[in-house]
Amino acid sequence: MSLMEEVYDHLNKNAFVETAEEFSTDWCWRSRSWYAVQKNKKSDFSIPVAINCLNKVKIKIALACIKRKKFGGIVESDIAVLGEVRDRLERYLLEEHRIAEVAEDEAPPAKC
Question: 56: Cβ–Cβ under 8 A, 6 or more apart, which residues?
């Protein structure tokens, strides 16, 4: 199973995405059919798509950290799930493409 499929499955099982189309457009910034095409071709994330997805994950983590201030520990599981996805994407970029870090315009808090 590709990392792309693992990330989608993990996000789907934890209710962050409902459909592959949503994952394609909202998380990877691609067309609605992108995930289906990539899966059919047995492809994985390209560098730009992995970075797009990583950025979305980091934004979701930052938002969850803000929610934690209001709702307490109720969002801890969301932060943990998103943290796992972030770690997988960062490891993929490092091991497969030798990208050690992705620069950001405004860095959300890495840890909250």
Answer: 26, 27, 28, 29
Q: Model confidence over 11-49: pLDDT tens digits? A: 999 999 999 999 999 999 999 999 999 999 999 999 999
The arithmetic mean of pLDDT across residues 56-64, rounded, is: 95
pTM comes to 0.90
The one-character DSSP state at 13 is H
Within the chain, residue ranges assigned H as helices are 3-13, 20-22, 34-40, 47-71, 76-97
Nearest to 1 by CA among 83, 10, 27: 10
Residue 25 gets the label, from left (phi > 0), alpha (psi -120 to 50) or beta, of: alpha
Cα–Cα distances in Å, from 110 out to 15, 21, 36, 44? Answer: 22, 28, 31, 26
